[in-house]
Design a protein that fits this description.
The chain has 268 residues and is an alpha+beta fold. It is built from 9 helices and 9 strands.
Amino acid sequence: MSSLPLGPAAIPMAHALVYLALCTALLCGWWLGRKRQANPEAALFAMFGAGVLAARLGFVVRYAEEYSATPWQAVDIRDGGFLLWPGLLAAVIIGLTYAWRRPALRRPLGIAVLVGGVLWGGGRALLAALEHGSRLPALSLVDMSGHAVQLDSLDGRPLVVNIWATWCPPCRREMPVLAAAQRAEPQVRFVFVNSGEDAATVRRFLGESALQLEGVLLDSGNRVGAATGSFGLPTTLFYDAAGRQSHSHMGELSAASLRHNLERLRQR
């Protein structure tokens, strides 16, 4: 499952796990520090904020070439571009600073960080195991000419499956990025699964956008989303050459975040 449904909306499972771990750490820290009036809430929020900022800055520096043409996109975190290790290092430095300055915080802060970290790390490992155990669903879809196509047919290349719709603003914004990647990465197969729309609607959107896409398939019943646990749009799924899922990304892709995900796919 790549996303968690919340009524009519959905959030990425990775984000839900971060929020759960943070809330658990805050509750644990408050419980342990209440008698000594040493609530580590401020320290935990500072660690979280510094970690997110450093993780984003690390990502922007790593993929500076992709942001050079449109530098304002560096502050648009909707592309999900973060690097883990700079974020963890910044959070540790802030946590140690608080613990050094306020000895009363050391025990509640340390245990809160440990509990939140174990929950987050264990959840990440579980999600990764579930994703790596998933395979391409054996579904028959229809191409733009009305011919049946087996989604799980393989041609020896890694596969990127983008689930999208023309009415979805982030889907429309990321489509030129995916189209450019399809032209530049012939060693990777790209499939664009339109969710719930007919061929005329899709053809009109592609014509108005002047997009040249190969591998556009129609999924009238959103069967791919249901089969892969992808409840939000857009969602992009990454599979190795054997059809095993490597990872997923819910939300808009920028050129930088798509490059990052393709690098992860090649490491599989």
